[in-house]
Write a structure and sequence with these properties.
It contains 14 helices and 16 strands. It binds 4'-deoxy-4'-aminopyridoxal-5'-phosphate.
Length: about 425
């Protein structure tokens, strides 16, 4: 930090446990005073253009006045009541609106508070879907190499071990089948052969549609999803799309499943659901999944109920976020961002150490051969006045959809400049 940190910093740093980092050797996190649109204002007065949108959540930029107004109004009326035995308008309106946005008969919405828990709920739904129909053998999942679905135990177990950063928990986690994505006919045939051997034990296949995010921002095309749907139908498996990252226009359509014309059986959403203002997640099931729980037998009920599920403030934020998607030209903005990312990052192709440059929707990725000093690279971006957080071998941009063209150009220019330097940590 360039100036003296604020009073709260050092005393708090001695007690806070930070994510995904060796705290002994880490560079200290940047103290933030406030956010504004696509800017992060640091305590020492520096302003960073945000290239990450806080782990891909803040799709309308920070502090959007419309969302803030909705949350403030809800706060005055009722911040929270439990959804067990009580109902409130924000959660019910949101469930109805999400169901209307989803393709096909994805119409039953279970609320929770994080992407990982939304995945846990999807997995429980899938297993119990079979159990409720008298099938007790289907308790395993097929997931995919490069996939990431969260950090809770059930979700960890369907991550690719490397992409999910969970290798150390091998042996502790339940074992599922991690397969190659069916990216062509040959790999589809391989997956089909695999399912020949184990389908009777499989509850569902789970995939991040179009983009495997935390596993390295890897893209696949919509055919993969159509093949998965066909295989799920052939082997009578449920198909779960984890749209925690891809949901809400990040890949260019409101949901990634739309691009493939595929209706999965269960969808998970979180991240941009509240426009990045409050934690909220949803697991959305097709009618046939819900129908398997609809019974006179109490044991057929879904026994899940996070304390803060359907939190009224979070649902108010989500409803306001959906209003913004309706009223403002978000999809057109994503299209423009896509073109600007492609243009702005193209010069990276000629830089030494760059393996690939790819863009989908409002996701721009520069894949490097290696990053030798991640902390150094991250710090270089901050020196350039941008907040960009490379991981693994990936430098990526996932800006807010409301970012000004000029700010976006500064982000891409910073990537080109820093990756072109020797001593920036990449070689
Ligand atoms: N699924 C996907 C596809 C994700 O990208 C993430 C988070 N990066 C999660 C699940 C887990 O979400 P959360 O961090 O909110 O638990």
């Amino acid at each position: 930090m360039e100036e003296k940190p604020p009073d709260w910093y050092e005393p708090g740093l001695r007690h806070v446990w930070l994510p995904y980092v060796q705290m002994k050797t880490m560079r200290e996190p940047l103290a933030v005073a406030r956010t504004e649109g696509c800017r992060i204002v640091l305590d020492d007065g520096r302003e960073l253009i945000d290239g990450v949108a806080s782990w891909w959540t803040a799709c309308h930029g920070y502090n959007h006045p419309y969302i803030r107004g909705a949350v403030e109004r809800q706060l005055a009326v009722m911040p929270h009541v439990m959804l067990g035995g009580l109902a409130h308008e924000q959660a019910y309106a949101l469930a109805r609106r999400l169901a209307a946005l989803m393709p096909g008969d994805l119409e039953r919405v279970f609320f929770s508070d994080s992407g990982s828990v939304a995945v846990e709920v999807a997995m429980k739904m899938a297993v119990q879907y079979w159990v409720n129909q008298g099938v007790r053998t289907r308790k395993t999942f097929v997931a995919f190499r490069g996939g990431y679905h969260g950090d809770t135990t059930g979700a960890m177990a369907v991550c690719d071990v490397e992409a999910g950063m969970h290798a150390l928990f091998r042996g502790f986690l339940p074992e599922h089948v991690i397969a190659d994505l069916p990216v062509d006919e040959e790999s589809a045939a391989a997956l089909s052969r695999l399912l020949d051997t184990c389908a009777s034990e499989i509850a569902a296949m789970i995939v991040e549609p179009l983009v495997q995010g935390a596993g390295g921002m890897r893209f696949h095309d919509a055919d993969v999803l159509r093949r998965l749907r066909a295989l799920a139908d052939r082997y009578e498996l449920l198909l779960i799309f984890d749209e925690v990252f891809t949901g809400f226009a990040r890949t260019g359509t409101m949901f990634a499943c739309e691009a493939a014309g595929v209706v999965p059986d269960i969808v998970t959403l979180s991240k941009a659901l509240t426009g990045g203002t409050l934690p909220l997640a949803a697991t959305i099931a097709r009618r046939k999944v819900f129908d398997a729980f609809w019974s006179d037998d109490p044991a057929h009920a879904l026994m899940h109920g996070p304390t803060f599920m359907g939190n009224a403030l979070a649902c108010a934020a989500a409803n306001a976020s959906l209003d913004l998607f309706e009223r403002e030209p978000r999809l057109a903005q994503v299209k423009d961002i896509s073109a600007a990312l492609a243009r702005g990052l193209a010069p990276c192709r000629d830089l030494p150490g760059v393996k690939d440059v790819r863009v989908l929707g409002a996701i721009g990725v520069v894949e490097l051969e290696r990053i030798v000093d991640l902390a150094r690279l991250r710090a270089r971006f901050v020196e350039e006045g941008v907040f960009i957080r490379p991981f693994g071998t990936t430098v990526y941009l996932t800006p807010a959809f409301t970012i000004e063209a000029e700010d976006l150009a500064k982000l891409t220019a910073a990537v080109v400049k820093v990756l072109g330097e020797s001593g920036a940590g990449i070689s």
